[in-house]
Amino acid sequence: MIKEIKIFNKAVDTFLNDSIKFKQSRLKKVFFLRNEQVENFAIKINNYSSLSKLRFKFFFSEYDNNLPIIKKKYDLSLIWLDYTCYNINNKFFNWINSKVNELSTFSNYVLIKPIIIPNFKYSKIIKLNREYKKIFKNEKVIFLDIIDELLENDKKYWDLERSDFFGTKTSLYGQDLQAKLLGLKVIPSLFNQKIKSIIFDLDDTLYTGVVGEDGIKKIYLDKNQQKAEKIYSSYQKKGTILSICSKNNEKDVNEVFKKKILKKKLFFPIKSNWEVKSQNIQQIQKILKISYHNILFVDNNISEIIEVKKKIPDINVFWANNSQSFINCLKYYPNLTDYFNSNSNEINNKRIMDLKASLKREKIISSSKDNNYLAMLKMKIEYRLNNKKEFDRIFSLTNKVNQFIFTYKRFNKNQIKEYIKNPNKFVFTIALKDKFSDSGNIGVIFFSKINNTIYLDELCISCRALGRKLENYFIFYPLKILSKKIKFDKFLIEFVNGPKNKPAKNYFGELQKKTFKKRLIKKKFEIPFSKIKEIPIRNKHIYLYFKN
């Protein structure tokens, strides 16, 4: 365990020269469309991606400014160019766009390297890339906003004197940095689940000093911690939930916020006491309803890191043994950044409000008698069919939900478009609100019709909506809406067992038992239309409405 922790520290703090071998690494095919030498840094990508249990086999185009495309299937393609070889104008943009569209027919994703040119002013580079990014409309394209990372030390990034020898103007340092960024940060975000929550220690982690011993006057943020605050604040705006788990007196921690050393509004929940940290983290996890696979715990004390990792093996941990290591963690730790899809600030605000409201709901539910909590909560559920305006949210839910998901199909954007266009396919979005909060769009369900059968292709419900006993409403009310539009005789539900979808599995089993009066151990089953009518989806205290 200590060895694994140190390997992660080394990866984010320096450059790795060797690949780390893990069992069950997934092999992916990656193609570079390039006009410069990329082999030296490409082979080092696996040194970092192996930490995310990903390995890649690389393929390369010829050194040709005309960018001929090899028509073979790849999991991922990258357009990685020396832009000094071209006149950067609208004609170039349109030409690259045509190459991207051609390449996308053979690849699941296409990554575009931003325009960086030696001796160009930063402001000009930013302006060029704003224009460049606008041209790509293809759903498979990911324009990499990594200019700041690549040019953080631009004097070390370039080596023009030895460019003929290297076959690239990028220095050895720059090539190592490219491998690190792609292998640690970028590519894992395409194939693995995002870190949804970061739990921070306080003393000598978020700030310098120990508040209980040094006193509030000696607590401060050093230069790295000030930079770190900007980074984790940006994560919070994009949807990552920030929490605190600290061995401290609550009164002392409140002083830290009162003196505005840290911004209290960034963190929820805050656990400051003298309990074992793994116990506090377990309580935080219950509040957040996020799988441990999607949580990162950061602490400056290796003993605390080991204690938490032993008690909670699935959680991600990082040992921030100094403030430089801490900021490196925020810059490079895998899956902190989602390059393909980013949550809006509005969605994040709803999530935080809903989590806080869930504590009030739980008190009502636990203290209520005869299920009168429904009357007290005043829930409203809104359904929309094939709503193009909610396209991004549909994609996000389909690819991020872990706990209440039925088949793990993870539809891409083109597949979702097919559900909206095809008259025999249907996608419903589900929004939920009650007296405590407006949760917004919390679910998506996909149906398809073949002959006289409706198939449940996928159901994804955000963990924020769980625990209110609304599962039947998520499935069978949309089915009722469909029954008024099309005729069908039966409904088929399939389930795929996964590492994190136990809540969905429990409901799947209960539904079989209630429908057929006995527990069936089946991965899929049919419900005749006559039995669908018997499933209760009406309650005078729950307001349901279909808005299309």
Average residue pLDDT:
89
Portion in helices = 40-55%
How much strand content do the residues show?
15-25%
Which structural class do you get from the secondary structure elements? Answer: alpha/beta
Cα Rg: 26 Å
Total helical elements: 22
End-to-end Cα distance, whole Å, is 53 Å
- Taken from the alpha-carbon principal axes, the silhouette is globular
User: What ranges have pLDDT less than 50 throughout 5 or more consecutive residues?
Assistant: none
What's the β-strand tally?
Answer: 18
**Major β-sheet profile:** 8 strands, mixed
Topology summary:
Elements: H1 2-13, E1 26-34, H2 39-49, E2 54-60, E3 74-80, H3 90-104, E4 107-112, H4 122-134, E5 141-143, H5 147-150, H6 154-157, H7 163-166, H8 172-186, H9 188-191, E6 197-200, H10 211-214, H11 223-237, E7 241-247, H12 250-258, E8 267-273, H13 277-288, E9 295-299, H14 302-311, E10 316-319, H15 323-332, H16 345-367, H17 373-377, E11 379-385, H18 391-400, E12 404-405, H19 413-421, E13 425-433, E14 438-450, E15 453-461, H20 471-483, E16 490-494, H21 502-516, E17 524-528, H22 529-532, E18 542-546
Parallel strand pairs: 1-2, 1-3, 3-4, 4-5, 6-7, 6-9, 7-8, 9-10, 11-18, 15-16
Antiparallel strand pairs: 11-13, 12-15, 13-14, 14-15, 16-17
Helix pairs in contact: 2-8, 11-15
How would you describe what is shown here?
With 548 residues, the chain is an alpha/beta fold. Helices cover 40% and strands 21% of the residues. It contains 22 helices and 18 strands. It has helices spanning 2-13, 39-49, 90-104, 122-134, 147-150, 154-157, 163-166, 172-186, 188-191, 211-214, 223-237, 250-258, 277-288, 302-311, 323-332, 345-367, 373-377, 391-400, 413-421, 471-483, 502-516, 529-532, and strands spanning 26-34, 54-60, 74-80, 107-112, 141-143, 197-200, 241-247, 267-273, 295-299, 316-319, 379-385, 404-405, 425-433, 438-450, 453-461, 490-494, 524-528, 542-546. A hairpin with a 2-residue loop joins β14 (438-450) and β15 (453-461). The chain is globular and about 75 Å long.
